[in-house]
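Action item from last week, closing it out:
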Amino acid sequence: QVQVVESGGGSVQPGGSLRLSCAASGIITNNYAMSWYRQAPETQRELVAVAGSGGYINYADSVKGRFTISRDNAKNTVYLQMNNLKPKDTAVYYCRARWFGNDYWGQGTQVTVSS
């Protein structure tokens, strides 16, 4: 059984930092593109960052220079380091593992940025 589980969300003040983790089990993440998405209330889910299996990395323009995605294949885990957080970053953050027809999502973790 495949599980994708996010953790590390919480409430921070503007300018603060959080590190999200996504642990996958039941798959070997080496082959998978691992990505983070987010969804704020009444908005569509959007791609935040992606780390491909071959080293490809890309970010949404809105988070470039503030967020960093990294992966530890030995631990089947991907991280999202979020610095200089802004209120507009408030959303539920989801992890996604995808490889051809295999597509798995986590349940999400809430990030709230507010003073």
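Closing note: The chain has a mean pLDDT of 96.
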